């Protein structure tokens, strides 16, 4: 898997990425562990989280003040020094998150709970309302801080930053990320 910033997967690379997994960006005691729904094909092909052009995760991180500049997906390791990490509810790479089954999301929620308990991030930020609702059996959840915790880890639900999520503009995403950042600074 090439890791260069200039690497653009070919259609064959993207097709071959179906079903792959990519490693978590994880360390003990992070300020915030961001949790995507699952890796997309670009992430599977490149080995980097939120790698697809048009995904608004990296711009939302920057605009909200989590990062000092706009990081590229191939610079994801630099997040650890900022106390930030990335994981996913489901590990399997798909073209679209709606290809995951409810069972995969529930199983992913259980595995995520174990990762959180093992690594103790201060806040788990799940990026995707529907995925959170399914994975954790919380059908009425809304975006923002949640009342439940995973041990001492607070839970925050953010909108999915995928370019396919038309409900939120980049500016609206950055506002939601900023609310989380402002809370995380005082945790």
Automatic annotation (TrEMBL):
GO terms for molecular function: hydrolase activity, acting on glycosyl bonds. Pfam families: UDG (PF03167). The keyword DNA damage applies. Residues 23-181 form the Uracil-DNA glycosylase-like domain. The keyword Transmembrane helix does not apply. Keywords: DNA damage, DNA repair, Glycosidase, Hydrolase. Coiled coil: none annotated. Its EC number is 3.2.2.28. This is G/U mismatch-specific DNA glycosylase. It comes from Nocardia jiangxiensis. The lineage of its organism: Bacteria, Bacillati, Actinomycetota, Actinomycetes, Mycobacteriales. The gene is mug.
